[in-house]
Amino acid sequence: MQPWLNGDQGQNAHIQQAQNQAESTPKTSASCSPAPESPLSSAEESVNGLTGDPLISQSSLKPPSDDPSGGESQPGTPLPVPGHSGLSIQEMVAMSPELDTYAITKKVKEVLTDNNLGQRLFGETILGLTQGSVSDLLARPKPWHKLSLKGREPFVRMQLWLQDPHSVEKLMDMKRLEKKAYMKRRLSSLSDGHLVDGGLPGSDYVQGSQSPGQQQLKKPRVVLGPEEKEALKKAYQQKPYPSPKTIEELASQLNLKTSTVINWFHNYRSRIRRELFIEEIQAAGGVGTGSEGGSPSLRGSKSGEGDSCDGTESEGTAETRHGLGIGMEDPRGCKDHDMEAESEAGGSNNSPAQLDCTTSGLAGPGSSCGQSGLGLFGLTDASSGGSASSTILPASGPARNPRDNNLRKKKAANLNNIIHRLEKAASKEDPSEWEF
DNA sequence: TTTTAGTCAATAAC
DNA sequence: GTTATTGACTAAAA
């Protein structure tokens, strides 16, 4: 129904299924093409019917915060409620004040854990996202100012959800319903004498657009081996943006498809970048300072932990990174435009101080990073006081696995290397010499 | 056309 | 069973 969900494809198919709705939404891997009848919409309806779409239900729970000017919102000012305020979620997103994505995700994680609610359920029901996306989002939220409108939507939804005093209740209900539906299906399939293996929700819509006989045409997932990854990383370190020729070579040397190599570079760049966002926050003394010592999200959200230079380097390193426009870790920083983008993002600037503000998401619109904090649901405190990170600078954080250690070392070395090159580069006029 | 952002979904890890 | 990781894909921006 809501137009803003159109692009979301069949994500909510699960939900529908959970409710025993037969209708399956085409969702082939290539099915990213928007489903014509906006699967989500119906899903949303169904969700609404049950738990009430948080985005709407809230309208009945919250005094509509009249202020569609959202942008003005003071710390702690709840977002206006879509539905009630006559705003679509998209509009809300557009006019939403800067949100503290870290605080939000922290709080969400907390609530989910405390109530034993899974990411899948939460994602499908509240955000219209799959479990993996939710996990990612919760673990590595990007700072608000670096998010596109679309990227902000889940955070707005999360905030609305958190604002809803009955959010947990509703989700619990949903959970129960899902369970019930599942049992029902199971029962009926048993009594029908056939186990609908693939027929269980999920599998049929995954390949929904294919006829049953074609199901096995599913493309097997490529899993890169450690050596391959290693080689790719090395290549990346030398050239984060390899030429087509290089890609070809890599592909043939590694015996991979060029598209795989291309994808790998895309993904790697993007993920490195994201890790850096978090490091920024941490280095900045970021959001909430870690009361939760263990806040899984910022708990170094692994970025801090395993992946970043922080691990092995002193804070000095972090500072250095900052000074350099951050993002130095990994060659990613190699590309100047990247660095620019980074330091410039959000319209604010590289002045470390400012950076701190904005990146931490603490700054209210145009505020002194002071405290605006947009303390969502009183999160501000939590966030500024406690959440995360910096304190947990994983310098000592136990690596989760050898891979992390490895990475850490590598990145630390890499960082030094890059800094060195940057320093050198800085003394050169000719950018062409900046090539890494 | 290339790159990025956002996401899905398979599968690995816990 | 849940969460994390990651290759692949789409859409949009540059």
Question: Would you mind describing this structure in some detail?
Answer:
The model is unreliable at 1-77, 196-215, 287-407 and 416-436 (pLDDT under 50). This protein is globular. By secondary structure, the chain is mostly helical. It has helices at 13-18, 39-50, 54-61, 89-95, 101-114, 119-127, 131-139, 149-163, 167-191, 203-206, 226-238, 244-254, 258-283, 303-307, 315-323, 336-344, 352-360, 379-386, 402-426. It is built from 19 helices and no strands.
Characteristics:
436 residues, mainly alpha, 0% strand, globular, DNA-binding
Summed up, what is this model?
51% of the residues lie in helices and 0% in strands. The chain has 436 residues and is an all-alpha fold.
